[in-house]
């Protein structure tokens, strides 16, 4: 009888240990899942660096096409099958169907750049998270003419990391700016609005990259690809 009692006690401890382990595993997994909903400072720093590297690579490609290939600012093309609607970026001055890709940033025989949707952690779950536009000017960058910009929708954490690197104090409020930064560049430059020209987003003036909050509350990162 004594042996049976000891065996019963041992089995009870084993079952209790299994139950405790299961509870701890559940708690750990639940905590991990909750924390994955927000981005850590290190994740934001990595994502911001990725965006800046991508922007710099496009800027370099634009410069090379202008200086080496002799492409005009109006003939640059960002057409690629990567976009949700590639035809949106078919430059009217230099159509894809024409077959001459010398001034195409994302073509092998042009700029040779790889199109990227960027790390999913940087985006806000929208089908299109990045844009090339020519509707905005950055105050104190070049002239008052609109610049060629890469725009990237990002999380607030990445926005903060970008502005920290740019020497901008906080996520700058540009909610009063017309939200047409999603208009694709197709060869013409039409000024719609200027970033950095009023107090609410004055910290953006003179910056070749930075981040602002738009009228919809989205965090938007810009990188100047060509100042005009």
Global geometry: globular
Percent of residues in beta strands? 15-25%
As for the number of domains, it is 2
Largest sheet: 6 strands, mixed
Order of helices and strands: HHEEHEEEE
Query: What is the strand arrangement across the widest sheet?
Result: 3-5-6-2-1-4
N- to C-terminal distance:
94 Å
Uncertain ranges: 20-36
Tell me what you see in this structure.
- The chain has helices at residues 2-35, 41-67, 156-166; strands at residues 130-138, 147-154, 172-173, 193-195, 209-213, 219-226.
- The model is unreliable at 20-36 (pLDDT under 50).
- It has a six-stranded mixed sheet with strand order 3-5-6-2-1-4, with helices on one face.
- Helix 2 crosses helix 3 (156-166).
- The chain folds into two domains: 1-37; 42-226.
- The chain has 228 residues and is of the alpha/beta class.
- The N and C termini lie far apart (94 Å).
Brief write-up:
The protein is α/β, with parallel strands linked by helices. The protein has helices at residues 2-35, 41-67, 156-166, and strands at residues 130-138, 147-154, 172-173, 193-195, 209-213, 219-226.
Topology (SSEs and partners):
Layout: H1 2-35, H2 41-67, E1 130-138, E2 147-154, H3 156-166, E3 172-173, E4 193-195, E5 209-213, E6 219-226
Parallel strand pairs: 1-4, 3-5
Antiparallel strand pairs: 1-2, 2-6, 5-6
Helix pairs in contact: 2-3
């Amino acid at each position: 009888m004594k042996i049976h009692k000891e065996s019963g006690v041992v089995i009870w401890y084993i079952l209790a240990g299994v139950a405790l382990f299961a509870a701890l595993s559940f708690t750990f997994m639940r905590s991990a899942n909750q924390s994955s909903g927000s981005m850590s400072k290190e994740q934001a720093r990595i994502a911001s660096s990725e965006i800046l590297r991508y922007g710099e690579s496009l800027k370099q490609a634009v410069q090379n096409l202008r200086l080496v290939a002799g492409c005009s600012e109006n003939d640059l093309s960002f057409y690629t099958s990567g976009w949700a609607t590639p035809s949106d970026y078919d430059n009217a001055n230099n159509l894809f169907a024409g077959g001459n890709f010398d001034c195409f940033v994302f073509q092998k025989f042009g700029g040779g750049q790889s199109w990227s949707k960027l790390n999913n952690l940087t985006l806000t779950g929208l089908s299109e998270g990045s844009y090339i536009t020519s509707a905005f000017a950055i105050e104190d960058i070049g002239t008052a003419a609109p610049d060629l910009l890469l725009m990237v929708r990002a999380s607030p954490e990445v926005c903060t990391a970008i502005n920290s690197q740019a020497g901008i104090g906080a996520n700058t409020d540009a909610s009063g700016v017309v939200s047409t930064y999603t208009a694709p560049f197709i060869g013409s430059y039409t000024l719609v609005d200027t970033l950095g020209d009023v107090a609410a987003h004055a910290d953006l003036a003179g910056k070749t990259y930075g981040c602002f909050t738009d009228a919809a509350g989205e965090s938007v990162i810009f990188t100047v690809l060509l100042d005009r």
